[in-house]
UniProtKB/TrEMBL annotation:
Domain of life: Bacteria
Species in which this protein is naturally found: Streptomyces nanshensis
InterPro entries per record: Trypco1
Protein name: Trypsin-co-occurring domain-containing protein
Residues covered by the Trypsin-co-occurring domain: 4-96
Length: 103
């Protein structure tokens, strides 16, 4: 099996990312698999719990959802949601439909 390496970032004492050529490092993805899997499960759970709280309103309800998020691996340990840009790193797209027969 080929080696898959992922770039890691250094977090300062405040937990902020430090990205620069001298602070870049990489690790084998297989060594970080448990952290990545845990982050995916946690993000999925948050999205599912939030969506389960939505209810039909005036004949409209959420019929589907798409969740997109980015992960950044810290050089020490741990996974953080990506902060690669000023835009949101946790995006949810909802499809809302009106039920037939609703006024």
């Amino acid at each position: 099996m080929p080696e898959v390496r992922v770039e890691t970032v250094v977090l300062d004492a405040a937990g902020s990312r430090q990205i620069g050529s001298r602070t870049r490092s990489s690790e084998l993805l297989s060594e970080r698999a448990a952290e990545v899997q845990a982050a995916i499960v946690q993000a999925s759970s948050i999205a599912q719990q939030s969506l389960s709280g939505t209810s039909q309103r005036d004949g409209w309800s959420v019929s589907s959802a798409e969740v997109t998020f980015g992960l950044t691996l810290g050089a020490e340990a741990g996974v953080i949601l990506s902060k690669a840009s000023a835009e949101a790193s946790f995006e949810i797209t909802l499809t809302v439909e009106r039920h037939p027969g609703t006024p």
